[in-house]
Amino acid sequence: MIQRLFEIDKWKLKSRNVEKDAKRLQESLTSLGNGYMGMRGNFEERYSGDTHQGTYIAGVWYPDKTRVGWWKNGYPDYFGKVINALNFIGIDVEIDGETLDLFQDTVTDFHLELDMETGILRRSFKVTKNEKAFLIEAERFLSIVKQELCLIRYHVTALDADAEVVLTPYIDGNVTNEDANYDEIFWLEVAQKAEENRATIVTKTIENNFDIPRFTIAASMESRVTNLKESSEAVAKKLYVENKYRFKVLKGETAKMEKRVAVVTSRDYEEQELAPKAEQILADLEALSYEILREEHANAWLERWQKADVLISGDDGAQQGIRFNIFQLFATYYGEDARLNIGPKGFTGEKYGGATYWDTEAFALPLYLSLADKKVSRNLLQYRHDQLDGAKINARKIGLKGALYPMVTFTGIECHNEWEITFEEIHRNGAIAHAIYNYTNYTGDSSYLENEGIDVLTEISRFWADRVHMSERLDKYMIHGVTGPNEYDNNVSNNWYTNYIATWTLRYTIESLAKISTTKKEALQITDAEIDFWQDIIDNMYFPYDEKWQIFVQHDTFLDKELRSTDTLTDTDKPINQNWSWDKILRSCFIKQADVLQGIYTFGDEFDFETKQRNFEFYEPLTVHESSLSPAVHTVLAAEIGREDKAVELYNRTARLDLDNYNNDTEDGLHITSMAGSWIAIVQGFAGMRTFNERLSFAPFLPKTWDKYAFKINYRDRLIEIAVDSKTVSIELLEGAPLELDLFGEAVQLVDKLEKHDYHK
């Protein structure tokens, strides 16, 4: 069921309701971030109703002890948690002695707006206190020019009478996590001080038992107020600092305040340097007005959009969806820091934990390859190489050689606490390997592969070689006890996708080893016997297949289930992950997300049209799409086999998954990594872009409800724009050297601008 809170607008999310019954959903959707930090769309004022106050700093986390009913050998020692940090946006408001509270107070003319084009959140409303009317206006942004900086502008206007207004900007370190096991508070105070117009607080994570460095955060605020101020005071107490300003506001006048906050962490500075550094950041900006800082920030966003925007004409809902997703992805990660990755919730919530999943490599990397400088994607790969030692530890912990990249991590060490994922969802290893191919194939840059990348590939291959076993009955290699991408089927034997990506990884590693230097090969201690064993696995891997349906079987016993399509589910069944027992889900045939189809999508050049069509027509009707990663893959395959209406249906689902709360779970936070799926759906689905075997190609179609769409991609030091309307496919080379590519299967030379008019050919 669709739950839509915001108006359809091409560049903005706009609402005219406080949404007291859906406040958490509203907060998730209006989250802000700048790659360094971010927060949910909480109000600055107090709100006594149901809310999820959340502020998060990139790379700051806590190793909470894994708590399970029955400990199993090999379990991760800790569960890595994204932790709620200092609330530094807060501003208490009193009018004639009464506290402003948007849950209790009746407000009119409410307007909430997230401007995605410039990365600014605005809000205004009218409220009556003591029979006097007031206009409240708030605006904030997290600078993408100076990433440690948050700016807030807050105005209170007396509309029809004089009043005393008190504005109290504060920083509150007394925060908790909603997912804490036993109501833990993760922060201790290190220092705090408050003085006129300024205040600073320093907090540090509590002790842990896992030899994980503790994190320290300093936040310093500066408040600038108008000359209507009558008095001010500064207060510092445990885990809390504030500045309080009293205004005498005459009818028609406005109490104006600007709150500037600088946040720094022990990731970048020694603990004793933090408070001075935060204060210095604010001092360095002393001469720059709010308007100048906002303009710099907005211009930086506009520069990003110049290359990244996808233009859709004829469907404003589709347009809003793709822009919202690109905005939130870039707000989460733009590649400035190779120590960071793309968390599944970004800065919008705490669910899942961890800094990265395999989603990054499988879904987000293709977008960043096309929409950002290649160093951004290179940093994503470097992140995994830097954590190779941790991946080796993961493999040893379960008694295997090589490297097992974690499902959830901050350091490379697995820190997820569900056994069917930690031990069994090992297909993630293949996604790490495929990302190296994807980067090399797309950019033409083999330097990562030949140096860091081959280290990763070799250790992943050693893991696969140790994880398989030989079935004497069939004389085939098999992989038992796994969970494939479909998490509604656990502990299965011979998941087709896992077997396939394991075999592909071995093959790609052998091919890559042939290209590296003898010195590098010797450093890896590769032997001919080892390569021969890998080749034997490649030649003799078992892949479940059904002759009747002529499909790849998801796993050995999948076809023994009661098979029925999703249209037999009732509204009270859906989503099944919220209405059925886990036992019932596991016994059912229903698929959470693409599994077999994930492999056919990933390795699309290795399967013919009929194979894709048969497998899609069998598996898609069984798929409930209750993973945010699901619709994009199905969109691409539906488009490829000519199911254009199905492709558009699934695009709308991936593009507006959070905006329309399709899976009834967005109140916990946005599905950041899957947001790349909406871009994949358009570019690889509707436009048919492929880059297999170092060859760029397109085969576009235009959705029936659209008039036109257009986008740009970076490709091998070129900037290319593709535009599709009802009559024409236009491809223009905006920057870079000439390029030969394929359009509808025909080789064409792209020099400056190419137009193909017989679009339906």
Automatic annotation (TrEMBL):
The record's GO molecular-function terms, alphabetically, read: alpha,alpha-trehalose phosphorylase activity; carbohydrate binding; hydrolase activity, hydrolyzing O-glycosyl compounds
| InterPro entries attached to this UniProt entry | 6-hairpin_glycosidase_sf, 6hp_glycosidase-like_sf, Gal_mutarotase_sf_dom, GH65_N, Glyco_hydro_65_C, Glyco_hydro_65_M, Glyco_hydro_65_N, Malt_Pase/Glycosyl_Hdrlase
* Alphabetically ordered keywords of this record: Glycosyltransferase, Transferase
Q: Which GO terms describe its biological process?
A: trehalose catabolic process
Q: Its domain of life?
A: Bacteria
UniProt-annotated catalytic positions: 487 (proton donor)
Can you give the residue ranges of the Glycoside hydrolase family 65 N-terminal domain?
17-267
Q: Where is the Glycoside hydrolase family 65 C-terminal domain?
A: 689-750
Q: What family, per the record?
A: Belongs to the glycosyl hydrolase 65 family.
Q: What is the name attached to this protein's record?
A: Maltose phosphorylase
